[in-house]
Specification:
The structure is a single chain. The protein has 283 residues and is an alpha/beta fold. It is built from 9 helices and 13 strands. The longest helix has 17 residues. The N terminus is likely disordered.
Length: 283
C-alpha cells in the first residue's frame, strides 16, 4: 500500500541566553550525541514521562545558517528535503555543546522528545546555534502489516545471529525468534491504536501494558517485551533505530525471548504518520 502524507507544519522557535566563552570545533556533533542520549532515556518533560526514543539521524540538508531566521520551508525545499513537519530552534549565547544542551532541556524538551521527528541538522557560529529537527514524507510502497511484520522478524533474527554490544551490555548471539500470530495481532492492534489515537507509548489509552495486551489476545507466555517506533517508513530503518538505542537493542538480543509478533499501522492525520510495534514473548 502507499502511505499517505500530509501538508508540512512548520514552527520557528528562538531563545536568547547569556553565556560566555567561544564554542569549540566539533560541538555540533557533540550536541547531536547529547540530544540522542537524552532521547534514549525516559525523561520527565512538561510534567509527563517520555518513552525511550531511537536516535535522530544527521541529515546535511537540515544544516542551516546559525544566525537569522528565514523561510524554513523554502530552504528545506530548495535543499531537496521532502518534509512533512520541521521545527527550527535558535539559541543565542551558549558557549559550547554542553551549555546548548542545558538550554534545550530547559526550554525545548517537548521538541527534542517528539517521536515524530527522525532527522536532525545542527550548526553554530560563535554563540549562535540553529537546531533543525524534521520528519520527511513517507515514501515507497509497503506490504500489509503481516508482510512488514515478517520482514521485521527476518531482520531481527539476522541481528540476533551475531554477538552485539548494546550500550554497556554485551550480548552473545541468540537463537532466532519464531513468529507468533497471537503476538502479531496484539502488535497490530497497538500500532493501530497509536496511529488512530495519535499517541506514542507502551501503555495504551486504557492503561494497559504490553503484558496486559498480550494476555488479552490469548498469549500465555510469562515473559513479554515491546519495542515501538514512529515516523519511519521501512523495516530496515526501524531496526537501525532500535540497534542504536541500548534499551531497544537489548530487547532485540534478549536470549530469553523465543517468539515475536510485529506490525505497523498508518494514519495520515496523526503526527508521525506511521507507528510500529514489535512484541516479544517467551511461551
Amino acid at each position: 500500500m502507499r502511505i499517505a502524507s500530509f501538508v508540512a507544519r512548520l514552527a520557528g522557535l528562538s531563545l536568547g541566553l547569556a553565556f560566555a566563552a567561544v564554542a569549540s570545533a566539533g560541538d555540533e556533533a557533540r550536541l547531536v550525541e547529547s540530544i540522542n542520549a537524552y532521547r534514549g532515556q525516559v525523561q520527565n518533560c512538561a510534567g509527563q514521562g517520555s518513552e525511550e526514543l531511537p536516535p535522530l539521524a544527521v541529515d546535511p540538508r537540515l544544516v542551516m545558517p546559525a544566525a537569522g531566521g528565514g523561510d524554513l520551508q523554502g530552504t528545506l525545499s530548495r535543499a531537496g528535503y521532502p518534509l512533512v513537519n520541521a521545527q527550527a530552534i535558535s539559541l543565542s549565547g551558549p558557549r559550547d555543546a554542553q551549555a546548548a544542551m542545558a538550554a534545550l532541556q530547559q526550554s525545548f524538551c517537548q521538541v527534542l522528545l517528539d517521536p515524530q521527528f527522525v532527522d536532525i541538522g545542527v550548526n553554530h557560529t560563535g554563540r549562535d546555534w540553529r537546531i533543525v529537527v524534521a520528519r520527511p514524507l513517507l515514501a515507497g510502497r509497503m506490504g500489509d502489516w503481516q508482510v512488514e511484520g515478517q520482514q521485521l522478524l527476518e531482520r531481527i533474527n539476522a541481528v540476533r545471529a551475531q554477538p552485539r554490544q548494546c550500550g554497556a551490555q554485551a550480548f552473545a548471539a541468540a537463537p532466532p525468534l519464531a513468529w507468533s500470530a497471537t503476538l502479531g495481532a496484539a502488535a497490530e492492534a497497538h500500532s493501530r491504536a497509536m496511529a488512530n489515537g495519535n499517541f506514542f507509548a507502551h501503555k495504551d489509552r486504557d492503561g494497559r501494558t504490553p503484558g496486559d495486551r498480550a494476555e488479552l489476545a490469548g498469549y500465555g507466555g510469562a515473559l513479554i517485551g515491546e519495542n515501538i517506533a514512529a515516523g519511519l517508513d521501512a523495516a530496515g530503518k526501524v531496526i537501525d533505530g532500535w540497534l542504536a538505542s541500548p534499551g531497544h537493542c537489548a530487547n532485540l538480543m534478549n536470549p530469553q525471548f523465543r517468539e515475536l509478533g510485529a506490525a505497523y499501522a498508518a494514519d495520515p492525520k496523526s503526527d508521525a504518520g506511521i507507528y510500529w510495534t514489535a512484541l516479544f514473548g517467551s511461551p
